Amino acid sequence: MNIAKANILEAFCIRTGRPFVKYDAEGVGQSVIPDVEEVSFTKWFEDACYVVEHLTDGPQMLVSSSNGAWMALLMASRYPDRIHSTLMIGPGVNQCMDDDIYEGILASLDKETAARVRAGKPMRFKANWVGEVTGSKKFLDEMKAFRITNEQLHNIKCPVRIVHATDVSDVDVV
Known about the structure:
By secondary structure, the chain is α/β, with parallel strands linked by helices. It is built from seven helices and five strands, in the order H-H-E-H-E-H-H-E-E-H-H-E. The protein has one domain: 3-Layer(aba) Sandwich (Rossmann fold).
């Protein structure tokens, strides 16, 4: 992963002797993609669970951005005794929950690429925040199964801090 926010945090942790795990979700940025057809939100969740269960000790502070914040909330709900706190930077939670967003994405593509995606094929596209990203209808449909509910939010016992810019053109501030 080569994202400025994560790199700055990593440098801070190294400089101050704090343990640090930088998780790059499969199909995003520099992660290896063994089979682009298999990139899934479910796999992202399973991988994040594995990291918490097997690669860390003691209470964890999760620092996340965009869809990573969604994952952090899922982790805080699932592991209330392991997650000490969360810091979400520009969180993207419960994104792509309706078909209008999916259709909007398709409308922005050339006709050939849109036809491939409609046929169930994944696509790689450049995202200004992370480099290349893999997306598919399957992936977007899977995201719906991971919607954060009010019940899950009530299960989160740790402090949750959110940092979000207000002068961002692609996010409505209400």
